[in-house]
Structures are given as structure tokens and as C-alpha cells.
Predict the 3D structure of the following.
Amino acid sequence: MLQARKSRERVLESATKLNSVVLQLEAAAAQLRVAQTIQSSTTLLKGMQSLMSIPQLRSVCVNMSKEMMKAGMIEEALNDVMAVDDDMEVEAEGEVDKILQEVVGDILSKAGTAKAREAAKKQEEAKVDVAEPDALAARLANLDS
């Protein structure tokens, strides 16, 4: 029984050592992958550096900055001009409306008074019709006969 217990402990100890070795191997493999990735990125960066030098990159960035500033100024100027155009357009529309009201105002007022007269006549007829139900009944009787 004692021997069985000792052998069990040895087996557990061996399993633990094997587990430790497996974990160390996995860590070494991960480090190898990281080293390979760093090496490939280093190669890539060297290639990029050979394609474009730092002073050249700096001059390109400065030129680009100048062009962007010019574009910004041009855009602001265009926006200012457009704002002035919008104001002028609103004023022009106001003037056109005033002229139309002056020219067409008389015609519209005459048409409005004619419509008002027609509406007044219709209201009077409606009042007469409502006020005289006997007259309506008589008209209806005349129509039937």
C-alpha cells in the first residue's frame, strides 16, 4: 500500500513536470513567432526607408500643408462670396414681390371685391332660404304639380 502511494506520487510528479515542459515549449514557440514578426516588420520598414528618405518625406508634408492652407483660404473666400450672393438673392426676391404686389395688387383687390360680393349674395340667399321655410314648401308644391 505504501509502495502504491509512492508510485502514485511519482506519477503525479512526473505529470506535473511534463505539463511544465509543455508550457515552456509553448512559451518558446510564442517567442519565436514574435521574433519572426519583428523581423518581417524590420524588413518592411527598411524597404520603406529605401523608397523614401526622411528629408523628402518632410518636404512633401510641408508642401501638402501649404496646399491645404491655400485650399482652406480659397474655400473661405468662396463661402463668403456665396453668403453675399444669398443675401443679394433674398433682397432681389423681396423687390420682385413688392413690384408684383404693386402691379397685380389692383387686379387682385378688384377680384377680391367681386368675390366678396358673390359671397355676400350667397349668404343673403341662404338667409332668405332659411328664413322662409313656408316659401320653400310652396315652391316644392308648385314643382310637384
